[in-house]
């Protein structure tokens, strides 16, 4: 299995992203580099694709698969692409507030800490559907991380398309996300233009 081992903050600097986008509150010691070099249209499109891949933790082959799937769906291809990425189980766990970062959510899912509709799922790329209930597995509820999360005074915050229940450490997908509810700083149209060349 391919793994991206580039340090997260270094990658944020290269792509011009704030560390908060990937769930990091820690600020980088070095400021983002600003250059006056003119970037070509292709360079801009490539950077947008790299941003999306990095934010969601997806490598090229899988990302291309999402694009191909989004192209076959009804509606705007770029919005469909971001919608598919948002519906990944690791992202939904992060959005529900059951993990601090997408990377942590991915690891928690891989270790089998979550169930979807009562069935244990350990595949981070599994797509959730409207009506699905994501919950911390019964065996994992005694884990120190989840105990602390349950007893925390900070309420779980989830976007409008998700409903979080902190007392039971569960969340429900009420519907698919709209583009305006996806707060990632990515120009999805540039990605579509890149792939359609």
Walk me through what this model shows.
This is Small ribosomal subunit protein uS4. One of its GO terms (biological process) is ribosomal small subunit biogenesis. Keywords: Ribonucleoprotein, Ribosomal protein, RNA-binding, rRNA-binding. By secondary structure, this protein is of the alpha+beta class. The protein has two domains: 1-17 and 39-87 and 183-197, Orthogonal Bundle (Ribosomal Protein S4 Delta 41, Chain A, domain 1); 92-173, Roll (Structural Genomics Hypothetical 15.5 Kd Protein In mrcA-pckA Intergenic Region, Chain A). 40% of the residues lie in helices and 9% in strands. The chain is built from eight helices and five strands. A five-stranded antiparallel sheet has the order 2-1-3-5-4, with helices on one face. The protein is globular and about 55 Å long.
SSE topology:
Blueprint: H1 8-15, H2 41-56, H3 60-72, H4 77-86, H5 89-95, H6 102-110, E1 114-116, E2 119-120, E3 133-136, H7 144-151, E4 162-165, E5 170-173, H8 188-195
Antiparallel strand pairs: 1-2, 1-3, 3-5, 4-5
Helix pairs in contact: 2-8, 3-4, 4-8, 5-6
Keywords:
197 residues; alpha+beta; Ribosomal Protein S4 Delta 41, Chain A, domain 1; 2 domains; 5-stranded antiparallel beta sheet; 40% helix
Brief summary of the model shown:
With 197 residues, the chain is α+β, with helices and mostly antiparallel strands. 40% of the residues lie in helices and 9% in strands.
């Amino acid at each position: 299995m391919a793994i991206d081992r580039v340090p997260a903050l270094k990658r944020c600097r290269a792509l011009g992203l704030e560390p908060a986008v990937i769930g990091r509150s820690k600020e980088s010691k070095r400021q983002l580099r600003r250059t006056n070099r003119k970037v070509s249209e292709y360079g801009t499109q490539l950077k947008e694709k790299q941003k999306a891949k990095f934010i969601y933790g997806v490598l090229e082959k899988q990302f291309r698969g999402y694009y191909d799937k989004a192209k076959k769906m009804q509606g705007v291809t770029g919005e469909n692409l971001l919608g598919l990425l948002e519906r990944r189980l690791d992202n939904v766990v992060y959005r529900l507030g059951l993990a601090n970062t997408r990377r942590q959510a991915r690891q928690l899912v891989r270790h089998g800490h979550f169930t979807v509709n009562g069935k244990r799922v350990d595949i981070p790329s599994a797509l959730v559907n409207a009506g699905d209930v994501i919950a911390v597995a019964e065996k994992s509820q005694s884990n120190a991380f989840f105990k602390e999360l349950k007893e925390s005074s900070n309420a779980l915050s989830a976007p409008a398309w998700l409903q979080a229940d902190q007392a039971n450490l569960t969340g429900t997908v009420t519907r698919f996300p709209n583009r305006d509810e996806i707060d990632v700083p990515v120009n999805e149209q540039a990605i579509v233009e890149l792939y359609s060349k």
